[in-house]
């Protein structure tokens, strides 16, 4: 099963993966890097995972980072050590594709220099070097984890790549990096990281050969941040959508049985770019406080909006969603009325499909349906019948508008605050 964010990221994939991980053998991340921030609450403790799959919090589960991931080795080891320090036996359970590309110091410098240069048109990246690392990969100038196996060759490769980056950094009026130092710093970590190298596709297929085995492929960010299908150029630089899962871990698409899209019961976005259902003040601040909508990686306040069914319908299309998990329903508990966007209005012309023209998307006005709120707490609900009638009607409407059946509803951050609908 693939788990994807079906909006702009931060939908609560970490929580859903954590819930499902109890019943699987492998959890594998297929794209992105330390830009992600997956928050998971277990037994009163909070864990924020950036590069390590959320399955790590379940004893004995194998966690893989696929070839589609870009790996910041320093930050990865810090994250790993924090988990180990908190009593999680993480290290022997992690495998990383030797084909995963490395994020090196100059990628972060380039990311930040590009953003400065863009000024008012900045993308609002996390500054973690994601875009430049994927640029190098596509330009066939990247360094892969497996390249660290031969120390001398690795040094040569990294120095060449760093000098190439330095030429760009100078052109952007940014400080160049010390090439040899960059190489030495990552090569020094070889002995810790190389024992984790694996062929992720092979491991997944071998596991699935055994009877009664299951694998979760965990996406980061969301469909609307996909480099092909998102609100380009206000996107991340990887294939966040379900099809990216196959290439991102090294299996064929026919191995995938189902795709679960995770959506919030409303909409949020961090960074720049269109957000048609964005709320105005003070409603946006109110929802942000209720939902604690601050970035898990950067701490930035998230922009907040009503549920946008045009977005999720589109997401169902580009991901082939077989089901939905709706998170943070409880955040809406106090609202007297809720709005749901069913279409966009562009100067009298109604659009029911998500437009590819960014100019049009920036101009559209949402067409809303208003539904009554339930004004009762839902966080103790464990079955769909525990929910107030209005909450069930709200979920039914989301299902009808998006065309994807709801399989899970999350009503709080704790592991047990989940309703299994089907
Ligand atoms: P980048 O991935 O750091 O290059 O950032 C590109 C865009 O994706 C920016 O709008 C970021 O705010 C957004 N983004 C990246 N990672 C996440 C995430 O994990 N959640 C939500 N937005 C993200």
- Helix proportion range: 25-40%
Compute the number of structural domains.
2
Query: Major sheet: order of its strands?
Result: 9-7-5-2-10-1-11-15-19-20
Helix segment tally:
13
Q: How much is the average pLDDT?
A: 96
Question: Radius of gyration over alpha carbons?
Answer: 21 Å
User: Could you give a short account of the major beta sheet?
Assistant: 10 strands, mixed
How large is the share of residues in beta strands? 15-25%
Structural class: alpha/beta
What is the CATH architecture term of the largest domain?
Alpha-Beta Complex
CATH class of the largest domain: Alpha Beta
Find the count of extended strands (DSSP E, 2+ residues): 20
Could you tell me how far the N terminus lies from the C terminus, measured between alpha carbons in angstroms? 15 Å
CATH topology of the largest domain, by name, is Adenylosuccinate Synthetase, Chain A, domain 3
The gross shape turns out to be globular
Unreliable residue stretches: none
The CATH superfamily of the largest domain is Adenylosuccinate Synthetase, subunit A, domain 3
């Amino acid at each position: 099963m693939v788990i994807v964010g079906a909006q702009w990221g931060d939908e609560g994939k970490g929580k859903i993966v954590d819930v499902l991980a109890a019943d699987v053998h492998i959890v594998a991340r297929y794209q992105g890097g330390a830009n992600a921030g997956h928050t998971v609450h277990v037994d009163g403790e909070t864990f924020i995972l950036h590069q390590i799959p959320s399955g790590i919090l379940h004893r004995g589960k194998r966690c893989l980072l696929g070839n589609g991931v870009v790996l910041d080795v320093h930050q990865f080891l810090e994250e790993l050590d924090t988990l180990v320090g908190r009593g999680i036996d993480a290290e022997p359970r992690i495998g990383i594709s030797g084909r995963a590309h490395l994020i090196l110091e100059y990628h972060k410098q380039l990311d930040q220099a590009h953003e400065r240069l863009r000024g008012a048109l900045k993308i609002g990246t996390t500054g973690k070097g994601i875009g430049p690392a994927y640029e190098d990969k596509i330009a066939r100038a990247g360094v892969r984890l497996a390249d660290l196996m031969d120390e001398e060759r690795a040094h040569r490769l990294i120095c060449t790549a760093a000098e190439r980056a330095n030429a760009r950094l100078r052109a952007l009026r940014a400080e160049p990096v010390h090439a040899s130092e960059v190489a030495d710093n990552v090569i020094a970590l070889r002995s810790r990281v190389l024992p984790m190298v694996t062929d992720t596709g092979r491991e997944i297929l071998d596991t699935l050969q055994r009877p009664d085995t299951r694998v979760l492929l965990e996406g980061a960010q969301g469909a609307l941040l996909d480099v092909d299908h998102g609100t380009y150029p206000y996107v991340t630089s990887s294939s966040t959508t379900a099809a990216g899962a196959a290439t991102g871990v090294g299996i064929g698409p026919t191995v995938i049985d189902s795709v679960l899209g995770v959506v919030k019961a409303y909409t949020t976005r961090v960074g720049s770019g269109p957000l048609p259902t964005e709320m105005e003040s003070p409603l946006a601040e109110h929802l942000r406080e209720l939902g604690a909508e601050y970035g898990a990686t950067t701490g930035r306040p998230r922009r907040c909006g009503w549920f946008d069914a045009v977005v999720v319908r589109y997401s169902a299309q580009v991901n082939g969603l077989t089901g939905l998990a709706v998170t943070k329903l409880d955040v809406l508990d106090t609202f007297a009325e809720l709005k749901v966007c069913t279409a966009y209005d562009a100067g009298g012309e109604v659009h029911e499909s998500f437009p590819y023209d960014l100019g049009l998307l920036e101009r559209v006005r949402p067409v809303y349906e208003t539904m009554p709120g339930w004004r009762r707490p839902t966080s103790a609900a464990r079955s769909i019948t525990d929910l107030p009638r209005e909450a069930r009607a709200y979920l039914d409407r989301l299902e009808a508008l998006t065309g994807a059946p709801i399989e899970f509803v999350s009503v709080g951050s704790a592991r047990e605050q989940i309703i299994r609908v089907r």
